[in-house]
Amino acid sequence: MAVCIAVIAKENYPLFIRSVPVQNELKFHYTVHTSLDVVEEKISAVGKAMADQRELYLGLLYPTEDYKVYGYVTNSKVKFVIVVDSSNTSLRDNEIRSMFRKLHNSFTDVMCNPFYNPGDTIQSKAFDSIVSAMMVQAS
Amino acid sequence: MSPTQWDLPPELCCRPMAFVALTGLDVTYNAIHRAIWDAFCANRRADRVPISFKVLPGDHEYPKCRTKRTSYEWYIPKGILKTGWMNKHLNLVPALLVLFYELDWDDAVWKEKQSECATKVEIVRTSLQGRNTKVAVVLIQKKTPLPPGEDLVASERAASLCNACDLSGKSLFVLPHTDHLVGYIIRLENAFYEHAQTYYYTEIRRVKSHKEFLNKTTHQLLFVRHQFKIAFFSELKQDTQNSLKYYRTAYSLVHELRTHETNMLEIKTMAGFINYKICRLCFQHNTPLDAIAQFRKHIDLCKKKIGSAELAFEHTAWMSKQFQSFGDLFDEAIKLGLTAIQTQNPGFYYQQAAYYAQERKQQATHLCAHEASVSYPTPDHLETPSGALDFYGQRAWRQGHQSIDPPHMEKEKGGILALQMKEKDVPHSELIIALLSNAVAQFKKYKCPRMKSHLMVQMGEEYNHAKDYTKALKLLDYVMCDYRTERWWSLLTSILSTALRCSYLMAHIKDYITYSMELVGRASTLREEQKSRIEKNLIKVLMNEVPEAEPDCDQASAKAAQALWSDRMSLAGSNEFTIEVQDYVPFVQCKAKFLSPSFHVDDPVQLHVYLRADCPHPVRFSKLCVSLSNQEYNQLCVVEEPCKSQDILEASSQENMCLVPGKTRIYSFKFVAKTEDVGKKIEITAVDLMLGSDNGRCVFLNWRGGGGDAASSHEALLAARSFKSRGRVPEQHVEWDTVSIQASTMIISRIPKISVQLSHEPPALNNEMYRITVSIQSNEETVTKDVKLTAGLKPGQDANLTQSTHVTLNGLEMCDESHPALLPDIAIGDLQPGEKVEKCLYVRCVTTGARIFLFHVAYALSTKVEGKDITCRCHKDETVTIETVVPFEVAVKFVSTKFEHLDRVYVDIPFLLMTDILSASPWPLHLVTSQLQLAPTMAAMDQPQSQVEHVVLQTGECASECFSLQCPPVLNGTSSVASGQYLISWKRKSWCADAPVVTTVTTLPHVMVETIPLYVHAELPSFGRVRESMPVRYHIQNRTGLVQDVEMSVEPSDAFMFSGLKQVRLRILPGAEQEMLYNFYPLMAGYQNLPQLNISLLRFPAVSGQLLRRFLPSRIFVKVHLQCLAKARFVQYTTDCCPMDRVSHLSCRSLQFIQSDHGPLGCISDQSSPCMS
């Protein structure tokens, strides 16, 4: 299960960011922020013509000593980042994919809310609970 | 930096090369020897064999060889690898020893020299006792040797020398000291290289042979040692593939060793060495993925092998070094051509190394926090008798000890304490910063700007820990704006907090204020109480007091900072700061707007400044001023209140100067624009807000332009999208987000109260003096002065129009080229209220097409605005598009006297010129007159007179004229001649009599003139009468200088009987005329074809009868005989009953019959077509 989940706007500022060990929140913020380098590179590597057929799931962005960072970019260039503990070997690629899919669905629901302004930080309870379900339960 | 305990030994990091020792060379005093030595070692290129050479004296002592062990049964190894071993085989024990000796084959004292050489060989052999080192002899000779086999003396003596020295033939070399020294040397060293390879091969075999004596329980260390040695020898032998294999075996053996606290460091050290070798070889073999995989495995295996908890920092130091050296290897491989990618580059390893270094620092501060009373233990347990360790990775106080428990608890404690004390002196921050900056350089290269920023933040924080605040601030300042533009407020807040701490500790007032401002503002994610604390500190600074210390500062630094602040406070001056807040997110937001994008000069300019504070407490300011592009207005846009009360937090008596958090405050300014500024833009160049007071410290927050900051544009965008903006906002309450900045306005001239009307009759006719009447009426309430009219072609159109348009005020004469297209500033004078003036303007358009005409009326007027008298200039523009068309079209054609179209005319034969004038004007045209101006090549038959004089043409009507002309003879047979010009004078019918007449000239077309040899013309009455004879006379003129033979015949016709010569052949003299007389007797009424006259010229077959017939009438109108008229009624009846087609099909004969019985058919012929002739 994830230790940090983030939603980043098209303009690369955070819409939502949540991490498990709350005391080290800042470190996760930095991790997510730096992972945007790889995301940007991966998006730009896909040519303009191919942009329609691009896979949304970007896979493992980069491994750090302690964490694995996965990325996902919607067609409107909203980025999802999931950080997983390196020691957690039980998580397969497929499971990460399904986590992203769930996240994307929930995000779509948020966007469909007429009272939500695109570009504002996400404060939806439904989204929050979906994210909580995917996070490592803080012990 | 001096090498530390954790640096890898240089002998491990170098590339092992076969070691060959040279003796017998005197490189200092002997020039020849020097040259030989230089050829060996100077400028070795990569294509030379890998050998490291060393010159040693003949009696050099080599490391003693230990007596070979025959059994390992009772042997217990003391460690894995001796510290001196690698160096010994790299630099001390040669694979080959080469003895140089000067000896020519034909040396006079050969015997003596041979034995001396043998002695020398013997000496080195003895010093290498027990080693497998090969010995070779090189004879330095002065003479060039003969080809092998030819010099019998040489081969004989070589054999005897080998014998004497106990050398094989392969170990004796000859080096002739001639021109090709380098070539010989290269051949020599290749031979040496082979010998060295053999040596290392035997060494490998020797080490391998030990294996059978080892057992797994006591000799585990030896397994590792032997594998390492084999691998190292393989490397020396340049057999890197096998070497890699052996190192891998050694690596797995290291991890099979039993680990406990006492030997953990030794195992890790060796594992690190072997791992380094493996990675290095993998990169060398261009298999970087293998290297990375090996390194990952290594880290995973060793990560948990922390060893003694009291020396945990040793483990992190070692880990850091592992990452760093792998990063170095990776970087080196890249320099040699490897390509790295964004997600796999040396930067990550340096970064990780830095993390471990940071961890090491934390552990060190935690573990080495001894009390001051604890001193460095004596005796120093870290001292060893030799000054170095025997084995890699062992403790100085228990070298060679391999059991699980430390042998001496007291010594152990002392040793650990000594290590901890030493760790205290390590410059941790320096190490961390060096690693981070390495990583930064790498990430910069691999397009990771955010990673780079992150690392720079860490560097900044490390500098902060190292108390180098200036550098810390420099780095943090540099990256802050990246985080700000990316809107990562949480990260920005953390950086700002660090920066604030730094600036506090340095008592750097301006920075302190800047950072506080942003931390208090809306971009900061700090909690309210934190913001409140910072704001209070900020206010203290503004009141020239010392702020509270930042939390997380250590006591000593905070104290020093307090002192620094007090010093700053006591200093006079430099109490005024201007902070450009545009690029920050300050706690006061500002937006300035002109209420309209343009103002008329007689309206006051209105300007609003919106201010809003985001801080937790209300804030008071003492001055707000707006700077405009025209500085004269600046004094009008100031709000100021001398700050009397000291406390900025107190609500002011004038609520005006206090910003309440979350409330938007509006300051409005109003001023009258200067008349000079009409047509100019007024811009807000800056808005300044003064905080604090003159007697304390004042800070100007300066917004460039109309306000806004680093975050406001995005907020405005979001607000525009927001559903909230669509809701209704109560009056007076201003929604901050909906306020948009309007930083500039135009001053435009006053609205003119004057009417300009145009009356004219479009379209304009080409070339006429087109009249446009302009009427100007003043609707102003006061006198308009200095009214001026500018009229004419509007500038900026096609340049050709300027050439072809002429404007004048005088309508009585035609204007010409000298008249301009635009008449500027026609003075009209003053106009009283309600007065009206008319002005006529005449325009002559030489070409057709549309033109835009401009009528610009300008005047001056005095008025009062806000109690101020101003003179404004107003103007009104009126434009009109006028189409110019041609008034009429003239068509000209040449016809014969029979009105047949002519494509050529004949000399001296009259023809007609017909002109048609077709009116295209929508207005009636008065044709005053027309005139034909003939070219000399044309002559009029009579005096041509205009037939269209004073004719008035309505639209679409046509006037025609006809002139009879003749061409005088031309020189050669045929030529094209000019006809002349046709002039039409006209004007509009509607215009008065004295309007000028326009003359339009039409050039008549050229015509082909031809001379003909024979001219025929007929003389006959204008009509005939049925059954009445009519005489027809044909005149035939010979126009050549030759006698013409003419054959003539008259063809019979149904309509006529005739008398005369039916066929005749004549001869006509030059210039003479022949006359032929016929009597025609018409048989039928109506238009009848005359009997056809055929003429053929025998001399001019080209002149056909057909051509000549054109000069003759072809038919004639035959009237009814008077007696027949009575029967006409009956014929009418017959024709009515008889279908027309039947009539047409009747034969001529039957017609004749009808005619003879019932009278002529003339009554049914078409008599309506008039005959012009």
From TrEMBL, chain A:
The keyword Transport applies. Keywords: ER-Golgi transport, Transport. It is found in: Cytoplasm, Perinuclear region. GO terms for biological process: endoplasmic reticulum to Golgi vesicle-mediated transport. GO terms for cellular component: perinuclear region of cytoplasm. Transmembrane segments: none annotated. Pfam families: Sedlin_N. PANTHER family: TRAFFICKING PROTEIN PARTICLE COMPLEX SUBUNIT 2. Belongs to the TRAPP small subunits family. Sedlin subfamily. This is Trafficking protein particle complex subunit 2-like protein. It comes from Oncorhynchus mykiss (Rainbow trout).
Automatic annotation (TrEMBL), chain B:
It comes from the Eukaryota. GO terms for biological process: vesicle-mediated transport. It is found in: Golgi apparatus, cis-Golgi network. Residues 1038-1095 form the Trafficking protein particle complex subunit 11 C-terminal domain. Residues 263-521 form the Trafficking protein particle complex subunit domain. The keyword Magnesium does not apply. Belongs to the TRAPPC11 family. It comes from Oncorhynchus mykiss (Rainbow trout). It holds the Pfam family Foie-gras_1. The gene is trappc11. Involved in endoplasmic reticulum to Golgi apparatus trafficking at a very early stage. InterPro entries: TPC11, TRAPPC11_C. The keyword rRNA processing does not apply. Keywords: ER-Golgi transport, Golgi apparatus, Transport. Its main location: Golgi. GO terms for cellular component: Golgi apparatus. This is Trafficking protein particle complex subunit 11.
